[in-house]
Design a protein that fits this description.
GO molecular function: acetate-CoA ligase activity; AMP binding; ATP binding; metal ion binding
CATH superfamily of one domain: ANL, C-terminal domain
Organism: Chloroherpeton thalassium (strain ATCC 35110 / GB-78)
Keywords: Acetylation, ATP-binding, Ligase, Magnesium, Metal-binding, Nucleotide-binding
Oligomer: single chain
Shape: globular
CATH architecture of one domain: 2-Layer Sandwich
Number of strands: 31
Number of helices: 20
EC number: 6.2.1.1
Radius of gyration: 24 Å
CATH topology of one domain: GMP Synthetase, Chain A, domain 3
Pfam families: ACAS_N (PF16177), AMP-binding (PF00501), AMP-binding_C (PF13193)
Bound molecules: adenosine-5'-monophosphate-propyl ester
Length: 657
């Protein structure tokens, strides 16, 4: 975990963003929270009595049995809605099918080759019930772990909801992970079954997933059955007795499967996320609390209306796909778009084309995608009619103000608010975000915490930082969708999240609050660097670089320096029409000095054809740090999106010597 947390002395935030965008009256009028006054009032009510607030929120949803106690807090272990019983699948499907929503589209699916399917709530309910029966027939019982490894098809949603329906614990493993990663996750969670597809389609090519599963299962004693959904129809090996076709089993299954009444603390899912060191952490989420915050935050942050068509571009293999593609939207009865493939296939306007054709109204994506679109050129966006859009969102990393502005102007046509949502796999749901009808927006900040979420920016000793002083982002009070533990490793749970700042949940992020109480995320604390006694958020230097017209993307890391302690190294990807040379290098250094100050001037600027990223799109800073210090790259690199990127960086480094 974090390496630079001994003290926050000198974490300095030097990005000064002055632009403010107020919500338009036509937007505020229809929103659930219409003004900052209303927000402040709600925030205070929730902060004064969080248990009362959360009990009110929870009572919006269906409980088979009401809870006795809202919160049992035995630091750092929480139990929410103790004694209550509910079911997320019931809340996502059954509550809608006795209303007119039964014929409303739940899922609009588009495959990468262009094939399309729509499932109404009634149809989805039927498929999920059938698959829940399939799971039971294959020996899955309440509490058993089921690994899921498939591309983005409706069957992935069906498999997840079927688990939730019978109380099996789903463990979705992103379909880009290797056999080794799969084995590791299956064994850590002792999964009894894996649900997979024969293959998935990406950039026009079919990827054989079953082959990866076969390789992974050589060393997974807990797996008893494999269910294979046929997507690509490629030739695969089916092992007698172990492997079964989805369509064969579904053909025999009954449509009747009542949702189990589950204890509020019954485990819902495990989702693995990488720590900065060691093996991946199995983040464990449970039932009642997760449902309460995820469903309610979806409703308010996305200000969702009955007629909205909502599209979140995340993969279901990540937390965003769990909380804001499946559970949040479906519990609210929304229509979701699910897209199988790449954003740039067959060309760079695939996303805009999907928005235009399906009349998407709410669009939620990641800054890394936005930066890729900027690089591809505005013409891909401007040739499409995006007038159906009314709200935009981002998640996953700090968004550079320039990327925010591009998104606001080119995609939102200056009429759609942008909700920059800060949260983590561990938090389960959104923690800091604008409320679109209320919060004046500033490009680059997730703004204020949601009501009921008591976050703060503090010193190492837990005392609050002054306005504009950098510190650690913490959560001071348990919240319903917080992780319950790291699966099978309570000690790691305690040390990772609860030992850095006494009595508070430590997020691992550095942040500052401005004079308006807006929270500016400065990146992970281990990405904060100390230069000549000044600490800088590397993301701020990156923002400065990206605001230069030549720069498409930048990653800034530190390397040891005898005189300054650390020196800054910037890896820069240029827009196509620019060429990396000494003159531009000097220009960029001067640009950063102008934007932030001479202390932030990168010592080295290195050109990179592309930056090495994890499959979820995060820049692999550890690798870059090792490159910057010219050390051999060590450790687990299985999450590299493109291994050639690393090679290219190495070659470029050799050439520049
Ligand atoms: O550093 C923060 C960054 O992503 C981390 C959480 O990553 P993960 O668990 O993969 O979840 C991503 C999707 C919720 C955080 O510790 N992060 C996430 N959202 C933002 C962000 N940084 C800045 N602004 C955000 N909106």
């Amino acid at each position: 975990m974090p390496t630079n947390t001994e003290s926050n002395a000198g974490i300095s935030s030097v990005l000064h963003e002055q632009r403010v965008f107020k919500p338009g009256p036509e937007f505020s009028e229809g929103a659930t929270i219409k003004s900052m006054d209303e927000y402040e009032k709600q925030y205070k009510i929730a902060a004064d009595d969080p248990q009362k607030y959360w009990a009110n929120v929870a009572s919006q949803y269906h409980w088979f049995k009401k809870w006795d106690t809202v919160l049992e807090w035995n630091e750092p272990f929480s139990k929410w809605f103790v004694g209550g019983e509910t079911n997320l699948c019931y809340n996502a499907l059954d509550v809608h099918i006795n209303t007119w929503r039964k014929n409303k589209a739940a899922i609009i699916w588009e495959g990468e080759p262009g094939d399309q399917r729509t499932l109404t709530y009634l149809q989805l309910h039927r498929e999920v019930s059938k698959f829940a029966n399939v799971l039971k027939r294959r020996g899955i019982q309440k509490g058993d772990r089921v690994a899921i490894y498939m591309g983005m098809t409706p069957e992935l949603v069906i498999a997840v909801l079927a688990c939730a329906r019978i109380g099996a614990v789903h463990n979705v493993i992103f379909a880009g992970f290797s056999a080794h990663a799969l084995t590791e996750r299956i064994n850590d969670s002792h999964a009894k079954m894996i649900v997979c597809a024969d293959g998935t389609i990406r950039r026009g090519k079919s990827l054989n997933l079953k082959e990866v599963v076969d390789e992974a299962l050589v060393d997974t004693p807990s797996i008893q059955n494999v269910i294979v959904y046929q997507r690509t129809k490629e030739t695969i090996h089916m092992q007698d007795g172990r492997d079964h076709w989805w369509h064969d089993l579904m053909g025999l299954a009954s449509e009747y499967c009542p949702a189990e009444s589950l204890d509020s603390e019954h485990p819902l899912f495990i989702l693995y996320t990488s720590g900065s060191t060691g093996k991946p952490k199995g983040i464990l989420h449970s039932t009642g609390g997760y449902m309460t915050h995820v469903a309610n935050s979806f409703k308010h942050v996305f200000d969702v209306k009955e007629q909205d068509i909502y599209w979140c571009t995340a993969d279901i293999g990540w937390i965003t796909g769990h909380s804001y593609m499946i559970y949040g939207p479906l519990i609210n009865g929304s229509t979701i778009v699910v897209y199988e493939g790449a954003p740039n296939y067959p060309q760079w306007d695939r996303f805009w084309d999907i928005i235009q054709r399906h009349k998407v109204t709410i669009f939620y994506t990641a800054p890394t995608a936005i930066r890729a679109f900027i690089r591809a050129g505005d013409e891909w966006v401007t040739k499409h009619d995006l007038s159906s859009l009314r709200l935009l969102g981002t998640v996953g990393e700090p968004i550079n103000p320039e990327a925010w502005m591009w998104y606001y102007k080119n995609v939102g046509k200056e009429k759609c608010p942008i909700v920059d949502t800060w949260w983590q796999t561990e938090t389960g749901g959104i923690m800091i975000s604008p409320l679109p009808g209320a919060t004046p927006l500033k490009p680059g900040t997730a703004t204020r915490p949601l009501p009921g979420i008591l976050v703060d920016v503090v010193h190492k000793d837990g005392t609050p930082c002054q306005a504009n002083e950098g510190g650690f982002l913490v959560v001071k009070h348990p919240w319903p969708s917080m992780l319950r533990t790291i699966y099978g490793d309570e000690e790691r749970y305690k040390t990772t999240y609860w030992s850095e700042v006494d009595g508070m949940y430590f997020t691992g992020d550095g942040a500052r609050k401005d004079n308006d109480g807006y929270i500016w995320i400065m990146g992970r604390v281990d990405d904060v660097v100390n230069i000549s006694g000044h600490r800088l958020g590397t993301s701020e230097v990156e923002s400065a670089l990206v605001s230069h017209e030549a720069v498409a993307e930048a990653a800034v890391v530190s390397r040891p320096d005898e005189v300054k302690g650390n020196a800054l190294v910037a890896f820069v990807t240029l827009k196509e029409e620019f060429e990396g040379n000494q003159k531009l290098r000097e220009e960029l250094r001067a640009h950063v000095a102008k934007e932030i100050g001479p202390i932030a001037k990168p010592d080295d600027v290195r050109w990179a054809a592309a930056l090495p990223k994890t499959r979820s799109g995060k820049i692999m800073r550890r690798l870059l740090r090792e490159m910057a210090s010219s050390k051999e790259v060590k450790g687990d690199v299985t999450t590299l999106e493109d291994f050639t990127v690393l090679e290219k960086l190495r070659e470029e480094e050799e050439e520049s010597k």
